[in-house]
Amino acid sequence: MLLLCAAALWTGCRKELIVIPDNEPPVVNNVPAIKIEHYVNRLFIDLLGREPLDDELAREVAALRAAELSQAARLALVVKLQSDTSWVEGDSSYRRAWSQHFYNLAKVRCLEGASDAEIRQFLNNATPDDSVRLLDVLASRRALELGQIQAHELFARMVYNRVYDQINMNTFNFVNATFDNLLWRYPTHAEFQAGFDMVEHGYTRTLFGEEGSSKDDYVQILTHSYEMFEGMIIWVYEQLLARRPTTEETIRLLPDFYQHRDIRKIQQAVLVTDEYAGF
Hints:
By secondary structure, the protein is mostly helical.
């Protein structure tokens, strides 16, 4: 009798397995759900300048989990945020939002984050040439979105206008600032002298193997140089990883970047890594 009661008591206390529909496991490949959500959130902020909406977050997290956080799935999301032209509430499209954010970051780097309204103020009493260059700055966001210019050409516009000249008064500061802003280093004595002579005096000088004799020539030589593309790689790494690329990373990325000139590829190379994702 005692054994029967004990058996009955044990049966009554036995835990029952309950299956909750659509309750996915919180860990994928040893990566907790909160880290996946953080990765998606960070991608939206770094590429579009905003956090994802709730439905965007849920959709993209689900897609990454279904693909077990594969490199291909990460890349697909990054490319989508950079390039997708489908209608998106508030952004018009991800492509437009990416271009706007990139444009804003370039203005922070070169123009102390000047707003478009502040740039337009410089149109007052501007010469015809200065007006064209200022309007080129304002048009560069749309031109980047449409693929009419690449990143190095956008940066050329950022450093060749009255706003930049106001920030970096006189040729001495201009040459040093352009090297610092674009190449992430200061010029050697010979580089500085060549740039200074081109800009200040209109003398014919050689810089990075190219001859020039004007401010326009100087900006074109600088922004089309091999070092310009290395500088943009540094810029992307500093933005996304808060560090400079290693020599090996630069060697791996630079040849293709210089040939195809698509800075989105550099972003992609960083954004799919476990280092960036925190996985």
